[in-house]
Structures are given as C-alpha cells and as structure tokens.
Amino acid sequence: MPFYDFWKNKGVTPIGQRWSRQAAEFTLGHVQRHVNPLRHVVEIGPGRGPFTNACRRAGIGYTAVDANPGLLQALDATDGICSFVPPLPIRNVVCDAAVANHVLEHVNGLPQAQAMIAEMRRIVRPGGCVTITSPDLMWVRNYFWDCDYSHNFPTSARRLYQLFLDQGLEVVYLGYVHNHLTGLVGHIAGSLAASVPYSLPFAQPNSSLYSDQIYKARLTFSRAILIIGRSPLEAV
User: Fold this and answer.
1) What is the set of domains in the chain, with CATH numbers?
2) Which of 97, 87, 102, 229 is nearest to 163 (CA)?
3) Whole-prediction pTM value?
C-alpha cells in the first residue's frame, strides 16, 4: 500500500489537526443523535485517527478496519483489523454503528459500493446506523478526480440516498458539510477556500510554485455529504 504510506508519512500542521478533530466530532455528534445507546463503533479507513480519538474521548468502544498495517499501528489500535473492504472480516451484528469517512469514493465502481454498504449494514445491530461521509461531486467537480488518484466511485447526495435505500436502510439524516461547517456559514467558507489560488499558472505539483498546503485546505472545506441510514429494527 505505498500510496497510503505516502499519506501516512506526510506531516500535518496544527491547524490541519484541529480541522480533522472538528470534522470527526461533528460526525460523531450526528451519530450519537441517531443511535442510542452508542456503545461500540466500527470504523472503516480510520486514516490518521481523528474519529478514533473522538470515540475514545467519548468513552465509546471502537474497532478500526484498514488495509494498511502501518496506519493501524500508528493508531495503537489493539483491536484493529487489517483487511481490504469489502468484505468485512467481522461477524454479524457486533456494533451500534459502522462509519466510513471519505472511503466509499475509493471503491471500484457500483457493485463494490453496494457490497460495502451491505457489509456495513450486516455488522450493525437492528436499529443501529451506517454512516458515510464522501465528497460531493456536484461541488468539487473535476477536483474529485484530481485530488486523489484512487478516487473511483463518484458520490453525490442523490446517488448516496439511492444507494442506501437500495440496501434497505432508512435514511435518518442527509446533509451537506464543509469539514464541520453547515448551512450558509459552510457555503461561504467553502466558496472562500475555493477562491484561493494554490499555484501560479502552469505550475505542476512537483514545483515550488505549487502549494500543496493550500490545495489541501481547499479540499478540506469543499462540500461533502454526510448520510446516516438506520438498519431495520426487525432482524433479517
């Protein structure tokens, strides 16, 4: 997994850490509002661990699933599971919520996206929730493909809504978020971030005239979709 080793070894600024923490706390807060009790969470693709830490601060049981052993080791995830997803190497009905932040867009097309949501639904208890955050293609447009070469499955609010319904999930929350900001404030923040140039004309990513930090800040506040779907109360 050399690509994800690349991201693991990249430094994070203090402001970047703060933004990641705020986004994680925003997501966890919404999950807590829709899942009661919330005792255990399984997260797919924890990255550097902002959601991991949010769960730990809240005293919520937590399991991480990631294909990169180095990322799991960095998280000190003693109950971490090293695996590609889907499938999930976890038995049925083991958690109250399954969460994937900026992961679904990396799967290989619709069949794998359907399989991932089905697997997340399988491991949550009846009444538990599946939670996805993904970039909004309708906002980021061509940046969806440019920001990360492993982006494969285009995501939008309408597509995610249809995907959740197709997997038998009741959509209890669907909204736009700019990192941790919503509504008019989020829209303004995202628009202002998008207006800041990150390179001089014709500069390439390996050039000193290209600012990767500004590019990542633009993406941080670009519009994403947060969707939460509840598993039916009756066992299936």
Assistant:
1) 2-187+224-230 (3.40.50.150)
2) 229
3) 0.92
